[in-house]
Amino acid sequence: MPLLILAVFSFNSSRFTMWQGFSLTWYREALGDRDLLEAAANSLIIAVAATVLATLIGTLAAYALWKRSSGSVPRAVSSALYLSLVTPEIVTGISLLALFQWVFRF
Q1: CB count, 10 Å around CB of 78?
Q2: pLDDT of residue 54
Q3: 37 near 31, Cβ under 8 Å?
Q4: Is-contact 93 100, C-beta < 8 A?
Q5: Can you name the residues that pair with 22 across neighbouring β-strands?
């Protein structure tokens, strides 16, 4: 919802959160700023390079594990691989526990 509100207000002609009418002024300003366009291009180049590098390293690591273990992955490696899958649930659970303890402390 916050991103949707931000997207709607990006078409606002006012600088503030008071709606004054539909306008493309801010997009014109952004596309006219050379430094901003250069920064966006640099960000895209870095993102593509990081994606390609991470995919390459991940594929090579998976291939190496498959070749080396031939079906039996060592327990420590298997645990490390599963840890990245369960970490978000653990963090969410701890956060909810802290929230409920704070809310229901009285």
Answers
A1: 13
A2: 96
A3: yes
A4: no
A5: 12
